[in-house]
Amino acid sequence: MTENPYPGYISHEEKKIPINDPTGKWSDLTLLPEWEEEYYDVYTVRKHGKWVMLKALKKEYAEDAKYLDMLEKEFETRYNLAHPNIVMVNDFEDVPGVGKAIITDDVYGYSLRRLIDEKRLTPRIVKRLQTQLLDALDYIQENHIIHHPITPESIIFTEYNENLKLINVGYDQTSSLSEQDTRQDIESYGKVLEEVLDNLPESLPRLRKIANKAQDKAKPYRSVMDLQLDMQRRSSSTLYIFLACFIAIMLVLIFYLIEGK
To answer: CA 85, CA 166: separation in Å to the nearest integer?
Structure first.
């Protein structure tokens, strides 16, 4: 039996899928049912002996030109992204038994959904959501990426150091994001944080307040940066006041230096 790269995650041999590849390039194809999406299946497989992940259309969509174009567009969008908390896309290939697939780096770890369900949340995971997830969202918005809402299923924590990785980032890139697109990112972040807080044994009122505000339709955060500033116990208004005071002090100093001459 082949060594399992996902201890405790894939534990049934019947999830392995026979793969007919006389070249020997592809082997050990395994479906990851917990990471599937509406139109896609996600697999782990060995490519030339190295573990990678595949994202491919479900069988019922695999021959449909509309969905093939959608898959290719997602590849083109994600291929140009480079961020430590986003799973890297490497190639777009025809894989035996799977069809056209996006090839990404492998992620040895567990989805946030799994960690919530198994009550395995840790302080480090909460910290990663406060920092790494917001950094990734800020990067996505800077690059004008339109994507499906972030959910616990699309957030993976690596097995050993619990670093955060997003496995489903975007499917299109535009010249600019609408207010609704920006708002959706912030709201989905609030929902993820709220669910995590609901499943922690301790109460974290400051984070709860942030999660609620992220979902507040009346007075929401204007940007991911505003959310980050609040997470650091600062607000953008406080920062602006600080900068204004600093500029005023510098102007006074300059005035006295000129007068002193």
So the answer is: 6
Return mean pLDDT, the chain. Answer: 86
Return the amino acid letter for 52: V
Residues 60, 220: Cα–Cα separation, whole Å = 40
C-alpha span between 170 and 13 (Å, rounded): 32
Q: What is d(CA 15, CA 67) in angstroms, rounded to the nearest whole number?
A: 25
Q: How many CA atoms lie within 13 A of 191 on its CB side?
A: 13
How far, in Å, CA of 55 to CA of 42, rounded? Answer: 5
Indicate if the pLDDT at residue 258 is higher than 90. Answer: no
pTM for the full model? 0.78
Distance CA(191)–CA(11), nearest Å, equals 30
Residue of 35, 36, 54, 34 whose CA lies nearest to 44: 54
**Rounded distance between C-alpha atoms, residue 145 and residue 143, angstroms:** 6
231 close to 134: Cβ distance less than 8 angstroms? yes
